[in-house]
UniProtKB/TrEMBL annotation:
The keyword Transmembrane does not apply. The lineage of its organism: Bacteria, Pseudomonadati, Pseudomonadota, Gammaproteobacteria, Enterobacterales. InterPro entries: Glutathione-S-Trfase_C_sf, Glutathione_S-Trfase, Glutathione_S-Trfase_N, GST_4_C, Thioredoxin-like_sf. Its EC number is 2.5.1.18. GO terms for biological process: glutathione metabolic process; L-phenylalanine catabolic process. One of its GO terms (molecular function) is glutathione transferase activity. Gene3D superfamilies: 1.20.1050.10, Glutaredoxin (3.40.30.10). Transmembrane segments: none annotated. This is Glutathione transferase. Residues 4-87 form the GST N-terminal domain. PROSITE patterns: GST_NTER. Keywords: Transferase.
Length: 210
């Protein structure tokens, strides 16, 4: 079977945590793909060319021939189904309940913890920015994140024993705080730092550092 021709559209700075998730998913699978950038600062995502391509007018967007898909968790799941294990490395747990939990983690991180996302932008993670102390709402969100992460991890190295794409998404949220110098339980700090050493993550970090 010939390989599909995949194009992943990213923000021009490579600061999007959602593009990062899709990028890591494709890279972990070992699938060749092209990377195209869209300048959000110049509102290129709202202009005719990209608007005609992407229904959501957001990044990431993945194209596979005439098929177009946006939203990072949808892209992650599509890639997993299109290039399944054991032929390709798995990015989701094999166990149905663990797979469902991984999707739960991804959905939660994208829909909750808004104070963290507002007070600790990804410029902290990818550009070394430093932010003021968390507000009361931000501190409450951080405590909620830590409690959930500790409960999910237990004594494991990864959320579900073996690595999954949900580990990168969780580590990104933790690193918004850790890389700003915010206090964090030692185990979670070690977990976030370890996730940041995966080769696919390092490839993304090299892009955002340019």
């Amino acid at each position: 079977m010939s390989q599909p021709s995949l194009i992943l559209y990213s923000d021009a700075n490579y600061f999007s945590p959602y593009v990062m998730s899709a990028f890591v998913a494709l890279t972990e699978k070992g699938i060749p793909f092209e990377l195209e950038t869209v300048s959000l600062a110049d509102a290129e995502n709202l202009k005719e060319t990209y608007s005609a391509l992407s229904m959501t007018r957001r990044v990431p967007t993945l194209t596979n021939g005439t098929f177009v898909l946006s939203e990072s968790s949808a892209i992650d799941e599509y890639v997993e189904e299109l290039f399944p294990a054991p032929t390709f490395p798995a990015i989701y747990p094999a166990d149905p309940e663990n797979r469902a939990k991984a999707r739960e983690v991804q959905a939660w991180l994208r829909s909750d913890l808004m104070p963290i996302r507002q007070e600790r932008s990804t410029e902290v993670v990818f550009a070394g920015a430093k932010c003021p102390p968390l507000s009361a709402e931000g501190q409450q969100a951080a405590e909620k994140l830590y409690a959930a992460a500790e409960r999910l991890l237990g004594d494991k190295e990864h959320l579900f024993g073996e690595w999954s794409i949900a580990d990168v998404d969780l580590a990104l949220m933790l690193n918004r705080l850790l890389l700003n110098g915010d206090a964090m339980p030692e185990k979670l700090a070690a977990y976030a730092q370890a996730q940041w050493q995966r080769p696919a993550v390092l490839e993304w970090l090299a892009l955002s550092a340019k």
